[in-house]
């Protein structure tokens, strides 16, 4: 039987995300309060776009009705096909390129943006069949898309993003502001 002292010194191993990725954030996207996105940047430059824990979809027990990668009549992120070592053929995205639209059962609709410039490598088709992955595992199985920034831009790609510390500071200020009576 373990004693209390051993239990306190037991260190939980970091998750795969915490070990191999740096978290970056884009807060209040397009001026919409709390519509925060998280970009997981791997040491190999790949960036995974996910929802930040503070995004309204992950709050208030919402249920997802549909996820649509069809951005416009002529543009579907599902038709993105890349090939070869240089990932030719991937759609090029700007910072504010829409990746998908998520509609909740309460009919609220959210557009998820790329947040960074780069080539779209893949979208997560698994969330189309199992939307609950987005709610249950937003940083892993419920990711939105994978983007590869241009090599020459890979260092500057995070200039417009918030570090984890900056984001946590912003969220705590936001929480204080929301709790004060108007």
UniProtKB/TrEMBL annotation:
Listed GO MF terms: actin filament binding; actin monomer binding
GO CC terms in record: dendrite; filopodium tip; growth cone; lamellipodium; nuclear speck
Keywords: Cell projection, Nucleus
Biological process terms in GO annotation: dendrite morphogenesis; regulation of actin filament polymerization; regulation of filopodium assembly
Family annotation (InterPro entries): Abitram, GCV_H/Fam206, Single_hybrid_motif
KW Nucleus (keyword) present: yes
Main location: other
Entry superkingdom: Eukaryota
SUPFAM superfamilies recorded: Single hybrid motif
Cellular location(s): Cell projection, Dendrite; Cell projection, Growth cone; Cell projection, Lamellipodium; Nucleus speckle
Family: Belongs to the ABITRAM family.
Name of the protein in question: Protein Abitram
Organism of derivation: Labrus bergylta (ballan wrasse)
Taxonomic placement: Eukaryota, Metazoa, Chordata, Craniata, Vertebrata
